[in-house]
UniProtKB/TrEMBL annotation:
Keywords: Glycoprotein, Hydrolase, Protease, Signal. Transmembrane segments: none annotated. The keyword Glycoprotein applies. It comes from Arabidopsis arenosa (Sand rock-cress). SUPFAM superfamilies: alpha/beta-Hydrolases. The keyword Methyltransferase does not apply. This is Serine carboxypeptidase S28 family protein. GO terms for molecular function: dipeptidyl-peptidase activity; serine-type exopeptidase activity. GO terms for biological process: proteolysis. InterPro entries: AB_hydrolase_fold, Peptidase_S28, Ser_carbopepase_S28_SKS. Belongs to the peptidase S28 family. One of its GO terms (cellular component) is vacuole.
Length: 191
């Protein structure tokens, strides 16, 4: 963390300018070299491991600092997920298909829910109604927070939809999307 704390590092454009992937890679290059010297392990080869953004860093570090790392293992690393290479909607297409695969009925219900929530929010007492339905502790001021919350829930569920029980973001059973779609209400998706 440049300047030792998040508060300092996020202060202004000058301090923020150190929070780049290039700087992160340069930091790792210095760190790995320094650590090897401290451990009297200069002759030891280094292999980089990373997942997600860390996987992107591992890949780029192997490319940019081949004299420091002999290899990199990148897992779930979206190294080509950039606007001019992969269409921005690709992630959501994949996430949507994870739900569609389990139930096209549920997929369509979720798809229709965005407009339904916005419409409800515009009604008199609509935000209060939504607050009650979703059991929020505080009354919603707009539907934005609710839509973001649902977006996160669906997106993260798709990212951790492993075919076996796992404890990545949180403990979840195998096929968590199926679990959510089939057990969220006794009527399934016929909301
Ligand atoms: C290497 O040792 C020096 C001196 O003890 C220390 O200041 C530095 O933080 C160490 N570097 C790493 C990467 O452990
Ligand atoms: C809604 O707005 C009020 C007043 O601005 C604020 O105190 C409250 O925390 C807001 N509620 C939510 C859920 O953000």
């Amino acid at each position: 963390m440049p300047y030792g704390s998040m508060e300092e590092a996020y202060k202004n454009a000058t301090t923020l300018s150190y929070l780049t992937t290039e700087q992160a890679l340069a930091d790792f290059a210095v760190f790995v070299t320094d650590l090897k010297r401290n451990l009297s392990a200069e002759a030891c080869p280094v292999v980089l491991f990373g997942g997600s953004y860390g996987g992107m860093l591992a890949t780029w570090m192997r490319l940019k600092y081949p004299h420091i790392a002999i290899g990199a293992l990148a897992s779930s690393a979206p190294i080509l997920q950039f606007e001019d290479i992969v269409p921005p909607e690709t992630f959501y297409d994949i996430a949507s298909n994870d739900f569609k695969r389990e139930s096209s009925n549920c997929f369509n219900t979720i798809k229709d829910s965005w407009d339904a929530i916005i419409a409800e929010g515009q009604k008199e007492n609509g935000l209060l109604q939504l607050t009650k339905i979703f059991h929020f502790c505080r009354v919603l001021n707009s539907t934005d927070d609710l839509l973001d919350w649902l977006d996160f829930a669906y997106s993260y569920l798709a990212m951790v939809d492993y075919p076996y029980p796992a404890d990545f973001m949180m403990p979840l059973p195998g096929y968590p999307i199926k679990e959510v779609l089939c057990s969220s209400s006794s009527k399934g998706c016929e909301l």
